[in-house]
Specification:
With 147 residues, this protein is of the alpha+beta class. The protein contains two helices and ten strands; from the N terminus they run H-H-E-E-E-E-E-E-E-E-E-E. The N and C termini lie far apart (97 Å).
């Protein structure tokens, strides 16, 4: 019985049709899986970071310029920046959207308690919709120092 298979030189013509179909489907499935694996990098996300200027302010009205950047340092447009109270008090929450250059200026009037010499303002970033950016790590904080 095995002698007839060994002597057969017809290659794929001599194989049962089910084996041929399984082989074709297997190769096609492997091709799709390999394409998915190499395309995973395209599905990855990039962490955003915020660079405040100035990093230290006093209590009272201040203008803080915030620059939102990606992991490679490039500016990110249309990101929503949220400034809120940390250990320093802030009346409400300040929000703004970055321009084409990735920067936005936010006005805030932080206050410190009577027994407090310093505190912080927290900064969060809401990435542009459908951009592949995320903000999972903590961002830089603005230090509020009593003069």
């Amino acid at each position: 019985m095995f002698e007839s298979f060994r002597a057969d030189r017809r290659a794929i013509e001599g194989l049962p049709i089910r084996l041929v179909i399984a082989l074709v489907i297997g190769v096609a499935s492997l091709s799709v899986m390999m394409n998915m694996l190499t395309g995973i990098q395209g599905l990855s996300t990039t962490e955003l970071d915020v660079r405040p200027e100035p990093e230290v302010v006093g209590p009272g009205e201040s203008s803080i310029e915030l620059t939102v950047v990606g992991a490679d340092g490039s500016a990110v447009a249309d990101a929503t920046v949220v400034v809120k109270a940390g250990s320093a008090d802030l009346d409400g929450v300040r929000t703004a959207t970055t321009g084409e250059d990735g920067t936005v200026t936010v006005s805030a009037a932080p206050t410190l308690r009577a027994n407090q010499d310093q505190g912080t303002l927290l900064i969060e970033v809401k990435p542009p919709a459908g951009s592949g950016y995320v903000d999972r790590r903590g961002n830089a904080k603005v230090l509020v120092v009593r003069k």
